[in-house]
Amino acid sequence: MKQTNYFTVTLFMIWFIIISAQTILAFDTSQQLQYENFYHLSSSELNHTLTLNIDYFQEISDDLFLEGDLVIRTNNKSYAQPLIVGPNEIYISAYNITKNLDLKAGKVITRWGAADLFSPLDNFNPIPPNISLVKKPDKLGVLGTSIAYYINDLTFINAVFLPKLKTTPYPDQYLKDSYLNQYQPIYQVQGLNIDTVELTYLPTDNMIWGLRLSHSFPSFDAAISYYRGYYMDPFPVRLSTKSNAFGTTLTVKLGYPAKQVWGLEFQGDFPGIEGATLRGDLAYVVPENCPFQKEELWIRPFFKTESVEITTPV
């Protein structure tokens, strides 16, 4: 049944692309079609994902452009939407609007850090669940503004402002099933059987922002940065139960703890070995207090680093 639904959605996707092409091709575009599959040994299921990425670019006026990335994706994964259509990025870019100042505003992706995969400095955009671990993560665009000021040819400052947090898009049913499996044994020891799970979310009210100073030295590039925002994965803040004639419901109140991140990144030539390169990211993470069952959880600041990578010529 899943296979039939998958190929039905795939045919609809191709039809949608053909119908939409007249509008899309009004821009300067480039397209990439990608197919992935993954076999789950535990469930004996073969998952398929077909993705069409369309990068578009349109000049509005001198030094003012509309840019973005349209994503059309179909898959048969559990919990996932069978069809996703929409811009992952769409923003206005303005170059040299005043002397040495560039601007992006809209739904943007901001990447910080020298690492290809999971940098502890890359905190503005969430990653979809179930991503591939063998390629660069597919970040999700977030509404915000990115400003770059070039002090000179070698040094620039980047400031990023997001009006609100965009969280990791876990489906509610996935979270409900996960928390049921996690907490059911605990309540069963107390003689209580959980039948259903409800979720509530605490809001995050503060703006997310960050500053980054980058400089190019003769043999390597380096940057220091500061980020103030939140964790993007939900954290259970409070658990409560209620029982009626239909059974017992566990209500899980979820929050997104705040954090600050001081960062150092570098990449360039490795001294002493011709053609070898060195890169890495180091973060000093300062989590803010997070309540759990009305008790404050105190988490000490800690260092986190992406493995330093040394690449040598073959």
Summarize the structure.
The protein is mainly beta. It contains two helices and 17 strands.
Written overview of the protein:
This protein has 314 residues and is mainly β. It has a domain at 1-89. The protein contains two helices and 17 strands. The protein has helices spanning 2-24, 172-189, and strands spanning 28-40, 45-61, 64-75, 83-98, 101-108, 142-150, 155-162, 196-201, 208-216, 220-230, 235-244, 247-255, 258-269, 277-287, 290-292, 295-297, 302-311. The chain has a twelve-stranded antiparallel β-sheet. The protein has a three-stranded mixed β-sheet with strand order 8-12-11, covered by helices on one side. Strands 15-16 form a two-stranded antiparallel sheet. The longest helix has 23 residues, at 2-24.
Radius of gyration over alpha carbons? 23 Å
State the share of residues found in helices, binned by percent.
Answer: 10-25%
User: In angstroms, what separates the terminal alpha carbons?
Assistant: 48 Å
Uncertain spans:
none
Strand order of the largest sheet: 1-2-3-4-5-6-7-9-10-13-14-17
Number of H/I helices:
2
Principal-axes geometry comes out as globular
Question: Which structural class do you get from the secondary structure elements?
Answer: mainly beta
Query: SSE string, helix = H, strand = E?
Result: HEEEEEEEHEEEEEEEEEE
Mean pLDDT over the residues: 83
Portion of residues in beta strands equals over 45%
- Number of distinct beta strands: 17
Characterize the main sheet.
12 strands, antiparallel
